[in-house]
Write a structure and sequence with these properties.
The structure is a single chain. By secondary structure, this protein is α/β, with parallel strands linked by helices. The protein has two domains: about 210 residues, 3-Layer(aba) Sandwich (Rossmann fold); about 50 residues, no CATH class. A seven-stranded parallel sheet has the order 3-2-4-1-5-6-7, sandwiched between helices. It is globular and about 60 Å long. The protein starts with 6 loop residues before the first helix and ends with a helix.
Amino acid sequence: MSRRIPPDGEAVAGGDRAALARAITLVESKRPEDRPGARALVDGLMSRTGRAIRVGITGVPGVGKSTLIDALGSYLIDRGHRVAVLAVDPSSSRTGGAILGDKTRMARLATAPAAFVRPSPSSGTLGGVAARTREAMLLCEAAGFDVVLVETVGVGQSETAVADLTDTFLVVALPGAGDELQGIKKGIIELADIIAVNKADGSGGERAAAAAADYRAALHILVPPGAAWTPPVLLVSGLAETGLDALWDQVRQHRDRMEAAGAFAAKRKRQDGRWMWALVEERIRERLRTDPTIREKLPAIEAAVAEARLSPAAGADEIAAILGI
């Protein structure tokens, strides 16, 4: 059922970039008083979402994700697309601050009229993915961006979280992977829909080709025979801007294959279900942080667990009882 679009939502739907930035700030707000407005905004724009191509991008630090995204986004804009980049930055575990340096690393996209780059602090949420990245993605779609790229910090469990947000999951790898595949975990390779070995230019060409061979061998073991999609391993260079056409062609092929198999709509539905439960968990964490009665009791429970007067399981039971669950 469609809902009335608030006035600020009309500005977002009209492609107003300043309005989009303000809207994302609203949905990212942790203030309880902002929640009704944020919910009304997203609900009013839902009918305008869902048509964009959503690509998650991860890789170890130093792999060149931002350079590759800048090149790929510029390539897509030249071909008539409008590209939004949601770059989740690591937040300081002590201060909650974030680096937020993606606009300097994506110089062309940061100034392109057909692009929108939004650094977003992870604020300590599971996997380093900002709590409201999904809402930000929907707002970008409502604003007319037909390609949304979600960059992860490339550490921890952010890969799984971003795979749950997007249609195609791209793992960016370095040349010279060696026998240990540069430390990329088996689970991450299993999540990958596409692997792109970056920096495949100049003297790195041969090492990139060798790394690609290693990844293909790993995929041969991990991907079951008869799978509907076998992740391709591509050679790209964000710096030299090579391999971008082949990379985008594979993204489109993956989307087409999913739609033909009926897997695309099913995946989006599963993602919506996970989104709902993530919001439920967020509400519980928020209540723990903000309810004065609960905050008054938590230090004593934590101290009892720390001093071994109470087991962690018993402490959890006491907190659950306070929450009424």
